[in-house]
Please model this.
Amino acid sequence: IDPPVTYLQIIRAAILPAVLYYVALLFIVHLQAKKQGVTDVPDAPKNAGSRFPGVVFAAAFVALIVLLVVGFTPFRAVSLSLLVIVLVGALRPATRLSPKKIVAAAVEAAQSGVALVAAAACVGIILGVVTLTGIGSKLPAAILPLAQDNRLLALILLMISTIILGMGLPSAVCYLLMATLVGPVLGELGVVPLAAHLFIFYFGMMSMVTPPVALAAYTAAAIARSGIMATGLAAFRFSLVGFALPFAFVLRPELLLMNDFDNFADWLHVITQLLFSLTGIIALSAAIVGFGFTRLRFSTRFIGLIASLLLLLTPEDFADGWAQLGALTVTIAAAVVNFRKYRNQPTG
Model:
């Protein structure tokens, strides 16, 4: 019997995929801002008073995380975090909330939540259809015959089914459901158990930014006062790079840091695969946005897309790594050409 997986092992396995995802997200937002000509925000005056409003929200965020970790229910944790905002904000006149402001904030929050309630009602309809028709239990079982021993195709089909079945579910419920329905299928594909469970949990959560449900995007739309579907599509577009990462750590489990690392060769192997993955997500971000140092032609975007997929989705034993090395060379060459084009642009 295999020993149980410790929480520390889970943290170690999840850290590189998490870092790569946030690097991808920051990079794609940065490129989108450059493409739209968004300029830097002028520096605010450096004094303690100007930074204090941020401290109010930081204190509420820290309180929320601590309360959730301690074991408070989400409803109670959020309620106490709101109380923290009021108490910490009362320390300075500039951030102090009067009863009138508190009532106005409550009314505005309720009005913003109307769209979210409507979206949640639609989610209930979708979940009802999935549950009553039995498609939730039948879909994963049909994947292996459809894939016909093609591991990558099977993973893509599992991704789709996991996103569909995870629509609108809380993270714990989503994971338990997916582990029951999809987990055995990944086991039959020979996926490392810890990689399989992270794959399931990852794509179960990606349903939060995948239309038509995208509950996280709808919440963001209420906060930003933007269109629900437009925000959902933007969230999906910005998250596209992240959709490739679970395939990367399933096909190359060394990214999960599960080895003992007894010698330098093990570390070198992980660093090499991390370099390939990092270059892949940067190339994929540029291909999606259509911007690098300057705007990219369609041919350059297509080359970047193919090279990034080779860097991210090529198994480590495929062609002895030459496919990844070739894709890395092409990506660097394309970046150099685009940078020279940027340098040769007329100034002013």
The mean pLDDT is 79.
